[in-house]
UniProtKB/TrEMBL annotation:
It is an enzyme of class 2 (transferase). Residues 99-329 form the Radical SAM core domain. Belongs to the radical SAM superfamily. RlmN family. Signal peptide: none annotated. Keywords: 4Fe-4S, Cytoplasm, Disulfide bond, Iron, Iron-sulfur, Metal-binding, Methyltransferase, rRNA processing, S-adenosyl-L-methionine, Transferase, tRNA processing. One of its GO terms (molecular function) is tRNA binding. SUPFAM superfamilies: Radical SAM enzymes. [4Fe-4S] cluster binds at residues 113, 117, 120. The gene is rlmN. This is Probable dual-specificity RNA methyltransferase RlmN. S-adenosyl-L-methionine binds at residues 160-161, 192, 215-217, 291. One of its GO terms (cellular component) is cytoplasm. It is found in: Cytoplasm. It comes from Robinsoniella peoriensis. It comes from the Bacteria.
Length: 345
C-alpha cells in the first residue's frame, strides 16, 4: 500500500491520523495550518514540530507537490497558463486570470476527459485518471506561491468533467473553504458541468453556495447532440430540470455557458430559442466566442454576429455577458497548451 498523502487529509482525518501515531490533537491543527495556510511543501518546513515528528512525517507520509513544467504569460492581458507535472508524470493545465475584483484561478479536475465535447481540446486524447483533492488544491497553492498573489476566486472549468470525479471534488470544496485552510468563500467558487444529471442533483442536495455553470452550447436537443455526446445519456430537458432543482435547493443563480461557433449555433433563430429555453430560470448566460483548435474545423463567430446574439437575448430580458478572451496569445482554449506540450515531448 502507498503512503498516506498528508495534503489529501481533511481536518478531521488529520486529527485521526495524528491519534493513530500517538500525537496530541493540537499537532493536527499545526500540520494542517502549515500545509493549507502557510503552503508548506514538506514536513521539514514545519518548524514548530519536534524533529522526531518531522522525521516520522517525512519517512512515512507523502505530501503532494506539483512541479512546474511550463509557465506562459499573455502579452495581451497578463493571464498566466501553468503546466504542472504530477508524480506519475502526467501533465495538467491551470490558468491565473487577474481581474479588478481579484485573482481567479481555473483548475483541472481530471487528466484528460471522457466527455467528448466536439469543440474541446481537452478530450482529444481521452481520459487518463481523476485528480485527487490534493492535486486540485495544489494547483491553487502553487500558483499563489509562484505569483506571490492571493487567489480569491476559483473556477473548476479546466480539463475534465468535475462531476465525473464527484467524491474528490466535494472533498476539494470542503478543504478549500475550511477556516483552517485558505478559507475561500463558497460563493467565490464556480464548478462547471456538461450535464451529468444525477450528480447535479446530488450536488444540489449538498446545499452548498457554489455557483453551478452548465455548459449548454445549444438551444435544442438535436443541436446539442451534435456538439456534446453526453446528450445521448441526459436530454436537454432533463438537464434544464436539474438546473431548476439546483436553484431551488441552493438559491444560487445558474450560469449557462454558451460557446458561439460560427455558422453552427449563432443564428438569430438560435438566440430566440435559447432565450425561450432559459427565460423561466433565474440565470445568467455567458457567451464564449469559441477558441478555434487545430484538430477541429470550427470557426469563431464574427464580432457583429456575437453582438447581435447578445442584443437579442438582452431584448428578451436575459442577463447576458460576453466572456473576455483571456490569454488568447498563449493557447487560450482549455486543454490546448497541454496538447501542444505533449506533442513536443
Ligand atoms: S468541455 Fe469540459 S466536459 Fe466537455 S470535453 Fe472539454 S473538458 Fe470535458
Amino acid at each position: 500500500m502507498g503512503k498516506v498523502d498528508l495534503k489529501t487529509l481533511d481536518f478531521q482525518e488529520m486529527k485521526a491520523e495524528m491519534a493513530k501515531i500517538g500525537e496530541k490533537p493540537f499537532r493536527a491543527g499545526q500540520i494542517y495550518q502549515w500545509i493549507h495556510q502557510k503552503l508548506a511543501d514538506s514536513p521539514n518546513e514545519m518548524t514548530n514540530l519536534s524533529k522526531n515528528l518531522r522525521d516520522t512525517l517525512t519517512e512515512h507520509y507523502d505530501c503532494t507537490c506539483l512541479s512546474v513544467a511550463e509557465v506562459l504569460t499573455s502579452q495581451i492581458d497578463g493571464t498566466q497558463k501553468y503546466l504542472f507535472e504530477l508524480k506519475d508524470q502526467n501533465v495538467i493545465e491551470s490558468v491565473l486570470m487577474r481581474y479588478k475584483h481579484g485573482n481567479s484561478v481555473c483548475i483541472s479536475s481530471q487528466v484528460g476527459c471522457k466527455m467528448g465535447c466536439r469543440f474541446c481540446a481537452s478530450t482529444i486524447g481521452g481520459w487518463t485518471r481523476n485528480l485527487t483533492a490534493a492535486e486540485m488544491l495544489d494547483q491553487i497553492y502553487r500558483i499563489q506561491k509562484l505569483s506571490g498573489e492571493r487567489v480569491s476566486n476559483v473556477v473548476v472549468m479546466g480539463t475534465g468533467e468535475p462531476l465525473d470525479n464527484y467524491d474528490n471534488i466535494l472533498k476539494f470544496f470542503q478543504m478549500l473553504t475550511d477556516e483552517h485552510g485558505l478559507n475561500i468563500s463558497q460563493r467565490n467558487i464556480t464548478v462547471s458541468t456538461c450535464g451529468i444529471v444525477p450528480r447535479m442533483k446530488q450536488l444540489a442536495d449538498e446545499q452548498l453556495q457554489i455557483t453551478l455553470a452548465l455548459s449548454l452550447h445549444a438551444s435544442n436537443q438535436a443541436k446539442r447532440l451534435e456538439l456534446m455526446p453526453i446528450s445521448n445519456k441526459y436530454s436537454l430537458d432533463e438537464v434544464i430540470d436539474a438546473c431548476k432543482y439546483y436553484f431551488e435547493k441552493t438559491g444560487r443563480r445558474i450560469t449557462f455557458e454558451y460557446s458561439l461557433v460560427g455558422g453552427v449555433n449563432d443564428k438569430k433563430e438560435d438566440a430566440d430559442e435559447l432565450a425561450a429555453l432559459v427565460k423561466p430560470l433565474n440565470c445568467h448566460v455567458n457567451l464564449i466566442p469559441v477558441n478555434p483548435i487545430k484538430e477541429r474545423d470550427y470557426v469563431q463567430s464574427q464580432k457583429k454576429v456575437i453582438d447581435n446574439f447578445k442584443n437579442k437575448l438582452e431584448k428578451c430580458g436575459i442577463n447576458v455577458t460576453i466572456r473576455r478572451e483571456m490569454g488568447r496569445d498563449i493557447n487560450g482554449a482549455c486543454g490546448q497548451l497541454r496538447r501542444s506540450y505533449m506533442e513536443k515531448v
